[in-house]
Amino acid sequence: MPSPFVTRVKLALAFKGLSFEDVEEDLRSKSELLLVSNPVHKKVPVLIHNGKPICESLVILEYIDEAFSGTGPSLLPADPHHRAVARFWAAYIHEQVVAQFVQSIRGKTEEDKAEGIKQTFAAMETLEGALRDCSKGEGLFFGGGSVGLVDVLLGSLLSWLKAAEVISGTKYFDPVKTPLLAAWMERFSELAKAALPEVERVLEFSNMLAMAAAAAAAAASEN
Amino acid sequence: MPSPFVTRVKLALAFKGLSFEDVEEDLRSKSELLLVSNPVHKKVPVLIHNGKPICESLVILEYIDEAFSGTGPSLLPADPHHRAVARFWAAYIHEQVVAQFVQSIRGKTEEDKAEGIKQTFAAMETLEGALRDCSKGEGLFFGGGSVGLVDVLLGSLLSWLKAAEVISGTKYFDPVKTPLLAAWMERFSELAKAALPEVERVLEFSNMLAMAAAAAAAAASEN
Fold it and tell me: Which residues in chain A have Cβ-Cβ distances shorter than 8 Å to B76?
């Protein structure tokens, strides 16, 4: 499933150079393993390490950074203030940008969707400023010279952003207004190609969801 | 202001034995300092340390634990798996329990509010199980033998929970079903007395909000 939350974990494992077994989950018929591993939320992703499950994508990312601190680059910098800045932008994307983006796709009315696109657009300008500050000097990634937590969070949305632009026929950002971010998108997409879901796969998945919703609506209207 | 998000930070600073200057903020007329320190969200709490602002309560808690790792007890345990478990329950309270609790107070209809109370009630039973697991052996706090991140998160809601019970005339948890949690509430309230807002102050604040909402509704209906 091309879930951005799952993609976050795959990106982090890839950047750390850690190998893993990818167990696909059918969310229409959840496995016993998922229900036992994440009894509270019953959601993917779950990382099972040393036989113990870790749930919730942001918690998993921190866990990967701490449990494998000796392997590969770190997702978070060493300095407490820099760590706080990275966690601030990670929370911004997790709590705000994702919701605005979902509204742009699944808003109940066309007005709702337009508002979601507008807000995502504004968020991209805010993130342009963050990228300018975070990448001072080296200027390549939110993590500075290498990929960090914020790159993973925003990067996990890239395939969805591109798919949403295809579906809506609207741009979600303006390269002229956010040149650093536009260059970052190119750079990150290239670097993380293997761990990012293909845009076509996201489009197929979106079509499937839309058809399922239409079928459910049709079934409901028949009763 | 008796904000639970501000209380989180005050609790953490108190448990670490750190002194701080408490600058009250009038949210109807935000200070230049707040707007400059937290330009993205313009919200409290903000912790200013070494002249640099840290925003977002969960980010601040992690920062306090990391920047003052040599001072007082740690909010998070040392083992990566135990840290992940604590962060899981912290996120559960931050993202889910707070929303359910807010719904129980501010739900648009009486049905909405009743649903919020029901969900908060169920969450308390889930947290009873978490407390049983987290406090194995020592059995006093979510942090084990001493207060940790989860205690701070849930503890910051205690005065509001008591105030909500007064306002709604309904119990938000049943000590018979959640005996460990009930004992924890007593224990935590006693330990953290100085850092928790008084229930009367929360009630006054809620009355003020309700009156402001009623006045706004009356003004709107006059146009």
Answer: none
Q: Are residues A46 and A88 in the same domain?
A: no
By C-alpha distance, the chain A residue nearest B125 is A40
Q: Is B187 inside any structural domain?
A: yes
**Sequence-ordered strand ranges (E) for B34-187:** 46-49, 52-55
Helix ranges (H only) for B135-192 are 149-155, 158-168, 179-191
SS3 call for B43 = coil
* Shared domain check, A192 and A92: yes
CB spacing of A88 vs B126 below 8 angstroms: no
Residue range(s) defining the domain that contains residue A44: 4-67
Which two tokens mark A104?
């742009």
* Identity of the amino acid at A204: E
Cβ of A54 and B81 within 8 Å?
yes
| Cβ pair A66:B55 closer than 8 A | no
Is residue B24 located within the same domain as residue B114? no
Q: How far apart are CA A98 and CA B175, in angstroms?
A: 38
Out of B49, B50, B91, the one facing A58 most closely (by C-beta) is B91
pLDDT digits (tens, 9 = 90+) for A101-160: 999 988 999 999 999 999 999 999 999 999 998 777 556 899 888 899 999 999 999 999
pLDDT tens by residue, B5-44: 999 999 999 999 999 999 999 988 999 999 999 999 999 9
